[in-house]
Amino acid sequence: MVEETFEAPTPKEAYALAKAKYPHLERLELLQARQREDRDGKLSAEITVAVPEEAYLESLGMSEEEELIREIQELQDQMHRMKAAAGLTTAEDEKVQKVLSLLESKGLRREWLEAHLEPVLGTPVAADEALLLSYLLEEIDEGLEVVPEELSTPRVMMMVGPTGVGKTTTIAKLAARYSYLLDREYKVALINLDTWRAGAYEQLDNFARILHLEHRRAERIEEFAQHLDALKDYDVVLVDTAGISPYDTDRLIKTIEFLKSVQNREITTSLVISATAKYEDIREIYEHFNFIRVDNAIVTKFDETQRVGDLIAFLTEKHLPVSYISTGQKVPDDLLPASKERILEAFTGELHA
Predict the structure, then answer these.
(1) What is the pLDDT of residues 132-145, one digit of tens each?
(2) How many domains does the chain have?
(3) What range(s) does the AAA+ ATPase domain occupy (predicted)?
């Protein structure tokens, strides 16, 4: 498959360009969608789709030359890594491979590990297993980013993510935390954009009634902007969205349209992801939602896994900061501001398990 990108004023128009180029394909797999801003501040939509290589080459009238160039570049990268490792003694190489295999078995990506290993190859660090492991753990620590909890100005926070990761429960935890657990009681309201899942509004409405919070539903695009305007005096507005699979283009475009309808309020978008998910799944979810301009991640089900290497691999690769970590089902107790120490503690616990 070949990845091809299309750009247009809106995501619908970008997707239409892809369909127009490949009318004979029954289905185009959407890999990524994002928003771009030029130097003048003008926004446009960019989508990336997967196209069968034969169809792609046919559309361009090209040979397989580009594929050959890509393979040559990959070989050059491999040769570079081999040259860097060539200075190691057999004993040093065994130590390096042992540490790499240990971290890779815990979910970290081989490519990431090798890239961060190169600066210390041939030094005393590479010759000492404990030092090498400590060095790579420090690299992980530097690669992780967290977002401090900050409510000094009014905020609109939208939760996005796939079905079943706990977006609605996370919103309930945040609402209770902001309303009752901090230095003062913040004025919190909820907006529900999930018009697909049966009982979605009722579930959040139940939390709202228990916590005595304002709760509104927006079924049409214009209603969302109207609700935000009516709630402008609130400290925090939390927005729940429909769970979207990586292949549900219609729901993604609808969520994007909700966002683009608001011009006078800044909206922070949090991608809710499960700590139990595999690296490939997390990356696919992120690529799908990144068109919405994901600002940070909220990690759920942190208590349900003893393997967080996949999560760390993704976070360090994409440089996506984490704002909160959910460690259970209790509202609001099982939600904590993210910290590098908590994430690394879980990972180093794996190494000694």
Answers:
(1) 999 999 999 999 99
(2) 3
(3) 153-304
